[in-house]
Amino acid sequence: MLAAHGFDVVEAVGTGPELERALRSHRPDVSVVDVRMPPTLTDEGLQVSLAVRRDLPGLPILVLSQHVEQLYARELLADGAGAIGYLLKDRVFNADQFIDAVRRVADGGTAMDPEVIAKLVAGNASDPLATLTPREREVLGLMAEGCSNAAIAGRLHFSEGAVGKHTANIFAKLGIVASDDTNRRVLAVLTYLGSP
């Protein structure tokens, strides 16, 4: 499927150690990784991805999982570097949705499965977003899915300028200031997902 959509597949691996070697040697434009890989068949793919990203910040990785695991999603997003995604494996069957997620991650964005986002939000004990309007929450939810301002405008049927105003309001209400060291969208999404 990836090759049919213009991607060059440089390597396919079957175990955690092979994944680590391939990520470090190829430093691919994007990687699609299963959470569960041999030899442990627990969370080997995720742990290898996290370890490699600690050494190579921002290495684009899209993780696939059979079930929603809140801890996995939080761990993936914790570094705030972007270029990360977490989708349920069922999404692969929708080629357009899957390829869109791969491209977003490759471009440095995020691609979070809507079910993952729903679980994370439902699991939050307190609501740091209480000051946001329903529309601002909707915009932030689409940001959490990895949508650009243009994509949000298209989905919500208003202008990119309106999305920009909502985004600026979100940043202001959440106390997220512009900085060369951080990505405000990622910080807003982390707040949305309830990460520390």
TrEMBL record:
Name under which the protein is recorded: Two-component system response regulator
A Pfam family the protein falls into: GerE
All residue ranges annotated as the HTH luxR-type domain in the record: 125-195
Record-linked CDD domains: LuxR_C_like (cd06170), REC_NarL-like (cd17535)
Molecular function as annotated in GO: DNA binding
GO biological process: phosphorelay signal transduction system; regulation of DNA-templated transcription
Ranges of residues in domain Response regulatory: 1-104
Chain segments annotated as coiled-coil in the UniProt record: none
4-aspartylphosphate, modified sites: 34
Matching SUPFAM superfamilies: CheY-like
SMART domains: HTH_LUXR
This protein's record includes keyword Transcription: yes
Keywords associated with the record: DNA-binding, Phosphoprotein, Transcription, Transcription regulation
Keyword DNA-binding: yes
